[in-house]
Amino acid sequence: MITLGIESSCDETGIALYQMGRGLLAHALHTQVAMHSEYGGVVPELASRDHVRRVVPLIRQVMKQANATLDQIDAIAYTQGPGLGGALLVGASVASSLGFALDIPTIGIHHLEGHLLSPLLSDPAPEFPFVALLVSGGHTQLMRVDGVGRYQLLGETVDDAAGEAFDKSAKLLGLGYPGGPALAKLAESGRPGLYKLPRPMLHSDNLDFSFSGLKTAVLTLVRQNVLDEQTRADIACATQEAIVDVLARKARAALAQTGLAQLVVAGGVGANRLLRERLTRDIEKRGGRVFYPELEFCTDNGAMIAFAGALRLAEHQGTKDYRFDVKPRWNLQDITRHYAR
C-alpha cells in the first residue's frame, strides 16, 4: 500500500510517498524561511498563499522521483492540525480533492503524532513502549507511547515552549529568523558558565516545563550588558545550557517514573547538537537508549505524515467521505480517547 503524505501546518510544504514493506519512496520539502525572515516570524496569510503555489508542483516532483503514477496511490494522509488554519486548509483541500478524483481513502493526521512517530522511520528504530520528548517551536511535552494512538501525557510546558525560548531569546540578541538554529550556532563561540540563568521548574515534583522566566532573565542580561559579539555569544551559550539542562533532567525523570529505558526525541529542537549530546550521554550512562529522527525529519516534513497515515490505514482507519475540516487547536490526548472508543 502506497500512502501520499501532505504537510502544510505552518511554514513548510512537505510531500512524501511511503509504502508499507518498502519504506519511504521519495519526499520533497519547500521551506518559507527566506520569505518570513523579512518579517521576523511567520505571517499566516503569506504562508497559506505559498502553500497554494507549492503543493501541486511538489506532488509532481515526488511522483517523478519515485517513478510512480497517481493510480498507484492507495491513500492520502494530510496534516489536519494543529497549526495555522489557512495553511492547514490548503493541504486538507488538496488531499480531499485528489482522494475524490482517485476514489481512494484520505485520513487527517495530528501534526504532533507525525513528529512522535518519525524516529520509527530510522534504522535502528525504537520499539513500543517508549517515552517521547516532543520539542518544537510551539510544543514541549513528555509522552508515554505504548503504540500507535496510545499516548499518555506525562508533562508539558505551562507557558512558552522550548522552541519559543530559543526563538525569543535569539530575537533579543538581534539574531534573525529562525532564531533557534542561529542561537545554537552563536553559542558555539560562547564561554560556558559565564552567566547563570534560571532553570524554571527544574526541581519541581512533576514533569511539567516553564520557559517564560528564562526569556525574562535573558532580557535582563541584554539590558545590563554592552552587546559586543563575544557577550552575545556568552549569553547565547548560557541560554542554550539552561534550556538543555531542563529538557535533559525532565527526560531522565520521565524514564525513571515510567520504568522505561527508551527515549525518543522529536521536533525541531531535537536537531540541537548540545541536546543530543547531553541526552545520549546521560541516558546511556543509566543503561537506556535514545532515538532521534534523521536531521531532515526533525522539522516539519511530509515523510512523517505519510508514515503516520500508513500506520493508521493499516489499522483500517481512513474514509472516502471527502468532506473535510481542520483543527488549528487539537490536543494529542484526543487521539487516544478517540482510539479507545
Please report the first level of CATH classification, the CATH class of the largest domain.
Alpha Beta
- Determine the N-to-C terminus distance: 26 Å
Going across the biggest sheet, name each strand in turn.
3-2-1-4-5
Range of strand content: 15-25%
What's the structural domain tally?
2
| Biggest sheet layout | 5 strands, mixed
- Total strands: the figure is 10
Globally, the shape reads globular
Mean pLDDT: 94
Any idea what the CATH superfamily of the largest domain is called? ATPase, nucleotide binding domain
Secondary structure class reads alpha/beta
Q: Which stretches are poorly predicted, pLDDT < 50 over at least 5 residues?
A: none
User: What string gives the helices and strands in order?
Assistant: EEEHHEHEHEEEHHHHEHEHH
Under the CATH scheme, which architecture of the largest domain would be assigned?
Answer: 2-Layer Sandwich
Q: Radius of gyration over alpha carbons?
A: 20 Å
- Return the CATH topology of the largest domain: Nucleotidyltransferase, domain 5
Summed up, the helix count is 11
